[in-house]
Amino acid sequence: MLDQLAADRTLRAVIVTAQGRAFSAGGDLLEFNNQLQSDPRKLIETLAYNQRVFARLEALPVPVIGAVNGTAVAGGLELLLCCDVLVASEDAKLGDGHAKYGVVPAGGATVRLFRKIPVNRADAAFFSASLFSARELSEWGLINEVVPAAQLLARAKDIALQFSRQSPEVLAQIKGLARAYSNANGYDGYKAEIDAFTKHIGGKDLAEGLAAFRDKRQPQY
Fold first, then answer.
1. Would the pTM of this model clear 0.90, i.e. be above it?
2. Together in a domain, 134 and 210
3. What does the DSSP assignment read for 142-203?
4. DSSP strand E in the chain: where?
5. Contact 15/67 with Cβ under 8 angstroms?
6. CA–CA separation, 215 vs 20, rounded Å?
């Protein structure tokens, strides 16, 4: 599915949400323990596969919006950390419960959470294994907006629509630049921006954007 989304040139945004009262409680620890006891190597392979799936979601060339409709813990939080923007219902709660059950996080949370919020906040989330309200996490900077539950999906769609009006080529470049900067030591983000801009100047989106500005109209990408 993610490969199909990545290859779809008509796609402008993705919304990640869930049905029911909870977003995701993470992995089934009973099944986790069964796999650990029967074949630890297979369990590790499963965790590595999960990481690759999350990485594919994070690397989609379009904006990914997480719509948090309830509780998101551990693996649920790790999934949301792969999103670019988070909007949550007022009753949503998020947290990392790995430490509570003696499980080392293996879905990328120890990398991504420290990129999203201040170190001391991330430490508190990991060390306490607590759930935090959407309002509190909005104050921390993890969640972009908090809305009434009945308005959650509509607001996520509004955000997706707003993003879809922008140049898809530029948004893809911005995502790529940001991810490269956060993933590499000694990365020269300024040079990479110039290189990306140089590649972009011959593209149709820049031409359309400039023409629309000149003609005082909305661009049609």
1. no
2. no
3. S-SEEE-GGGHHHHHHHHHHHHHTS-HHHHHHHHHHHHHHHH-TT--HHHHHHHHHHHHTTS
4. 14-16, 64-68, 71-73, 85-89, 93-95, 131-133, 145-147
5. yes
6. 47
Question: What is the domain-level CATH number for residue 66?
Answer: 3.90.226.10
- Token pair, residue 204, equals 């149709």
Residue 154 domain flag: yes
- Asked if residue 62 belongs to a domain, the reply is yes
Is residue 71 packed enough to be buried (19+ CB in 10 Å), middle (13-18) or exposed (0-12)? buried
Is residue 32 within 8 Å of residue 74, measured between CB atoms?
A: no
Q: Name the token pair of 122.
A: 């991330």
Report helix, strand or coil for 91: coil
221 falls within a domain: no
Task: Give pLDDT tens digits for 43-73.
Answer: 888 888 889 999 999 999 999 999 999 999 9
